Structures are given as structure tokens and as C-alpha cells.
Amino acid sequence: METKKSEVRLMKGNEALAEAAIRAGLDAYFGYPITPQSEILEYFTEQIPKRRGVVLQAESEVASINMVYGAAGAGARVMTSSSSPGMSLMQEGISYIAAAELPCLLVNVVRGGPGLGTIQPSQGDYFQATKGGGHGDYRLIVLAPSSVQEMCDFVFDAFKLAEKYRNPAMILSDGALGQMMEKVEFPEEGSLPHIVPDWATTGKKGRERNFITSLHMEPEKMEEINLHLQKKYKTIEENEVRYETLDVEDAEIVLVAFGLPARICQKAVELAREKGIKAGLVRPITLFPFPKKILSDLSKKIDHFLVIELNAGQMVEDVMLAANGNCPVHFKGRMGGMIIQPEDVLEEIEKIIQQPILQE
Amino acid sequence: MSQEILLEDMQCVYQKPATLTDDYMHYCPGCGHAVAHKILMEVVQEMGIQEDIVGVAPVGCSVFAYNYMNIDMQEAAHGRASAAATGIKRVLPEKYVFAYQGDGDLAAIGTAETIHTINRGENILIVFINNGIYGMTGGQMAPTSLLGQKTSTSPYGRDVEHNGYPLKITDLIAHLPGAYYVTRQAVHTPNTVRKFKKAIKNAFEFQKLKKGTCFIEVVSNCPSGWKMTPKETLAYIEEKMLPEYPLGDLKVPTQNNN
Amino acid sequence: MIKGTVLINSENCKGCELCIVACPQESLSLSQKINLRGYRYVELSQDNCTGCTNCAIVCPDSAITVYRQSKQNYKKAV
Ligand SMILES: Cc1ncc(C[n+]2csc(CCOP(=O)(O)OP(=O)(O)O)c2C)c(N)n1
Ligand code: SF4
Ligand code: SF4
Predict the structure, then answer these.
(1) CATH number for the domain including C48?
(2) Is the minimum CB–CB distance between A69 and chain B shorter than 8 Å?
(3) Mean pLDDT taken over chain C
(4) For B158-173, how does the pLDDT look when each residue is reduced to its tens digit (9 = 90+)?
(5) For residues B126-149, average pLDDT
(6) For ligand 3, mutation pick of C6, C18, C33, C55 (most atoms within 8 Å of CB)
(7) C8 touches chain B (CB under 8 A)
(8) How much is the pLDDT for C70?
(9) Please, are residues C20 and C49 in contact by the beta-carbon 8 Å criterion?
(10) Kind of pairing, strands A286-288 and A141-143?
């Protein structure tokens, strides 16, 4: 298939993501099979030998992430992907990558947990993705797609952000987005130029040696590194927040959902509006940095937030922090691979607005 | 007779290689790591590959190898040096790449990475420092600790029933078709150091051929962990370590695998 | 016999004595003095060094530089 020009194709989310990565100038992919994201590795092993770059099926996720560390440290545009149990295995390596400030793309096509869990979609890894995940104080830049098109687009965005901030970026997807087929329009190959950074370990030709490390024995130095990282995360929070809103202007109840549930909530807002309920929706696109400000602003105007997630309630904690007591924050979730339906959301909305509001 | 006058007639026949930095090494007195670093860097200097090489340091006493080796280096997670080296070599196939690892790093926590890196025949050099103990964390038992060896976690001596056998990982990996050159060397006497140096040179020459992984075990010492003076470790190496880990080539390129 | 000598960087020496064991001429010994880091360091204590480099080769801390009489000068001396 000719894939040089910008074009529209019908594709699975996982494959769209992989195709996008090749077009984004991916130098190397290292990964290990796990459902529901194995199509990514399969797509690369089929396409990369015919196009450009390195693809390697590693012996484990532990090996994959450390290969990513090596290749990213050597200045390559590099990525790995996995699903929840595999992502857990990678956490030590991700912490090293964040500490050594290496740009790379991590993709978690989340499945239901805990444990071996299920291969069905879930958002149970929100905490792991947005709060660090591994040891120490670090953050990933986390993008949450809600369509196959975004599975493609966010690859470009994630590489741009990762390289801009020298920080690992993650696409937090789920099993349903990975497997569903939709039309997707691809950018042209080569539209994201990559310059080998001057800090990379490529052999010390004509310069002082470079080294990549996360070890600093003096506490003063380690605190300095931490302060530097925190400053960087702050800058990211100030500049890179992304979200979408729907019908929030006059809303009395605002749904908050990311990824696939955001699409379900779109439908729920429609259903609610048909019934004359002033509902709206905020969809965080970046989970870190989290869109605190819009939620905080809304919390002063609306009666209720209702957070919808495919987990036991994780992002809801961040919404509560943003609302800071200005309005009640409700939660409805499904777990274990179960998907919530628009009608369920509507029912929840109705329950909430029928509750008598306590008088002060 | 002052030394200056004397030196005038003389030529320098051995000095610290310029490929080592001026940093004072943090290693304990008499530690084999330091000898291995120096020899590795001597070869890098003699082969003129200082600008074309990337090394990977492990977690272990040699975690700071990048402070001493004046080349581009990365510090990998515990046990994952060969995976990081794989990542580097795959994206920089024309550079020399090596992983430098201790026995806990390579033969315990990193066993899977070690075996699979070599099984893929990654065109890198792995230098494996076998001192039979965990130096960095204070002298705990290593997979390579000898039977009967007392360590902080085998205070009554390593016991087969409880802890299994010393892991001869070098013998194991020599069987892998991806291994191109496998040898066991030491650095405790002038002669063993000279042979080790030759082995490093061989390994970098072989790396150019892209025929598979080169693996050099170094039977080394850990005076602090063994609770011995450096001088005492020499006899221990000869009498205890070498019978278990005999020196010599385990696999050399032949007509067949050439 | 070819004449040699060694220069010892006493501040880098950790007094491990491996060079003393390696020296076939028994030219080296530990000084009574200590360096800034608190180690007794090695000294050339006899004038019989041949410049064989054995001591420097085994020195972990690259503390020894070895010099040897060049062939030319050796002939002159003989
Ligand atoms: C994941 C992880 N587990 C444990 C440790 C602690 N640790 C640091 S070094 C080391 C063992 C080092 O021993 P070895 O590899 O034999 O090297 P040596 O210090 O003897 O040179 C251990 C267990 C760690 N840093 N990371
Ligand atoms: S603890 Fe052992 S291995 Fe570590 S520096 Fe000291 S002697 Fe060397
Ligand atoms: S081998 Fe080096 S460090 Fe050890 S005593 Fe001799 S000069 Fe000093």
C-alpha cells in the first residue's frame, strides 16, 4: 500500500497509531506482545523492514523499556507500547527515563485489572499514568485519545512534546480504541523533522563526552535535579493543557470524562438536553497536565460535576481538587472491562438533579 | 642523582591512558574493577576509537564507570545494561558498544537480558566482572559466590541445598549460537592483565565483523566484600576462584562460525 | 641490565600493595608517610628497577608511570 502522501484510510486504532509513528519519523520500536495492543508490534514488524527504522521484539517489557532508554539516550526517536500488566513491569525503566530526561513515546492500551484481569477496555491505569507510576517524583506528559484519528494525531503531538521538554510522553488509550476501526487521515511522512540532540551519546566526536545517568549521590545535587524537574513540570502545566468542552456555557451539570467514555458522554449530553436538562461536558485531552483551571472556573458556576470513568474512580480525585468544594463532584464508573452506556449516564444525571439541594 | 636528570635518558613505557578522566576513582584499594576500567580504556586509546564508542555502566560498584571512562556513556538500570546496549547498538550500528556489568547485575537480576542479548547475537561487547559477591550493597551473596563462601547473607557459608550452585553463566552462554567470542580472564597479575587486554582488543576487532556478541568474564576480587587485604585476595583468586572458574577461551571464532 | 624507573603519583596511590607483589625486582615498598587521603603510599626503595611495567599494569589507580632507558642509551652505558 502506498503510504507516502496525506491520505484517508479505514483502520484499527492500534494500526493507525503504528502507521502514524512511522510517518512521524520513528527511528526505533521495542516491544513485547500483549493483548489488546499486539497489532502495534505486528504492524511495525511488517512495515518497518520495508520502510525505515528499527523494530525489535524484546524478551520482556523490562527489556523493551531499557532498550528504549538506550536508544533514546543515543538520540533516536523511539517508542514502546504495551498494555496494563506490561506497563507495570516497565515502571522502573520509565522512572530512569524521566530522571535522565530522555524523550520517548510510551503507549498504554489499557485493559481491565488488577492482576491479569481482562483484555477488555479499562481506564484503571489513570493513577499509574498521571501520578508518576514508578518510584520517585516524576511526571509523564499524558495524552488521552478518544478516536482512531486521535490515536494517529497524538503520536505526532506526543513526540513533539517529549522532545520539546526532554520528557517521556504517554498515550493512554484503551482496548476498545485500540481495536475499533474508523476513518483516519494521516499526515505526510517526514512532516516532523528530528535533529539528533547535542546531549545524546553518539560517540564523543569533536566534543566533550556525554553521559546519561540518573544517579547523584550528593543530596544537594539530587534535590537540585528534583527542583529542575518540578520546574519543568510546572512549565508544562502552564503551557500544554488541552481539553475540549461541549455545551458548558449554560450548563448546570457538567460531565467530565476522558478517552472513550467522553464519546459516550457526548451522547448523554445530547439525551439530557433533549429532556431539557442543561448538561455539558469537559473532556481532558492532556491528563497531565490536567485541565485544572477550566474545571475550577466551571465549579464556581455550575451545580454539579459528574465524572464518568472506566475504573473505580481515579480522575475524579483530580476533579475534586480542581472543584475545591465549590460544587459537588459525583462519580459513576464501570470496571473490569465493562463499558458504560449513554442511558446509564443519563440516569445518573437525572438522579443527581432530582436530589434536593441542601440549603445553607 | 635527581630523577629529572635520570628521566632525560629514558622513555616513558607505561602511563595512565588519556582515555581515562582525571577523576579519583572511588573503588576500594586493590579493586579489580579499576584495573578492568584502565585496560578497557587503554585498548580504546590504542585502537583510536574513543570518538566512536558508547559504553553502558551497570548498577553495582562500577555504577560510576562513566566518571572515569572518557567516552560517551549511559548508566543503565540494575541488570539491564545489555538491553540498553542493545538499544544503542540498534540505532548506532556503526559505533562500538559495550556493556560493563557485575555478577549480581548480569547473572542474577539481569539473567534474562544477558541470555537474550547474546542469543540475538547483538554486536556488542559484554565485560562481566565476576567477584563472587555484591560489592556495592555491602557484601551479600552473589549467584557466583563459591560453595561455603561466607557473605553477609550466607553467614554460615553458601550451602547447595539452600542456595544452589555457583552460576557459571559464561559456560552457559558459550553454548548460544549468538555468542561469537567467549573468554574468561582475570586481572590480578601482570600476565593475566596482559591477556585480558588482548581479549578486549580481540573483542573490538570482532565487533567490526558484526558476527555476534563478544563476552569477556573477568574473575576479579572484592577485598572489602571478601574481608581481605588486596594482597590476600590474590591467593584466594588462585586457590578458590580459578578452580571453579578456570581461565581461558570458551569459544573462539573458527572456520565454522566465522 | 636495562635500567628503568617509576614515577608514583602518591596522591592517587591507595597503598593496596599489588604493585609490590607484582614487582620481580622487589624495588617497591610502602612508605611510612601517608597521603592526603590517609593511605600509606608506595615508593621506589631500591635502585634496581628494570622498567618491566609489571607494577603499573596491575595498579588499579593508574598511579605508576614507568620509564625505561632507551636501547641507544643502554648501549652507551654498557
Ligand atoms: C532493582 C534494584 N534492585 C536492587 C538494587 C540494589 N543493588 C545495587 S548494586 C547491587 C548488586 C551489585 O552487585 P554486582 O552486580 O555483583 O556488582 P559489584 O558491586 O560486586 O561490582 C544491588 C543488589 C538496585 N539498585 N536496583
Ligand atoms: S566493594 Fe568490592 S567491588 Fe566494590 S569497590 Fe570495593 S573492592 Fe571493589
Ligand atoms: S598498585 Fe597502585 S595503588 Fe596499589 S600500592 Fe601500588 S601504586 Fe599504590
Answers:
(1) 3.30.70.20
(2) yes
(3) 92
(4) 999 999 999 999 999 9
(5) 98
(6) C18
(7) no
(8) 80
(9) no
(10) antiparallel
Q: What sections of chain B are H helices per DSSP?
A: 3-8, 32-47, 65-68, 81-91, 103-104, 111-119, 160-163, 169-174, 190-209, 223-226, 230-236, 242-244
Dist. CA A238–CA C28, nearest whole Å: 65
* pTM of the entire predicted model: 0.95
| Residue-wise pLDDT tens digits, A155-188 | 999 999 999 999 999 999 999 999 999 999 999 9
- What's the distance, CA A35 to chain centroid? 18
**Mode of pairing for the β-strands spanning A141-143 and A168-174:** parallel
The architecture in CATH of the region B28-134+141-251 reads 3-Layer(aba) Sandwich (3.40)
Q: Do the Cβ atoms of A113 and A124 come closer than 8 Å?
A: yes
- C-alpha A232/C-alpha A139 separation (Å) is 10
Largest distance between two CA atoms of chain A: 73
- Counting ligands in written order, the one closest to the CA of A96 is 1
CATH numbers and ranges of domains, chain A:
7-239 (3.40.50.970), 244-353 (3.40.50.920)
Distance from CA of A211 to the nearest CA of B (A): 5
Grid cell 458548558 is found at A248
Compute the distance between CA of residue B75 and CA of residue A159 in angstroms, rounded to an integer: 23
Predicted interface score ipTM higher than 0.90: yes
Could you tell me if C69 and C4 are in contact, meaning their C-beta atoms sit under 8 angstroms apart? yes
A246 with A281: CB under 8 angstroms? yes
**A: neighbours with 3+ CB pairs under 8 Å?**
B
Domain holding C52, by residue range, is 4-77
Domains in chain C, number: 1
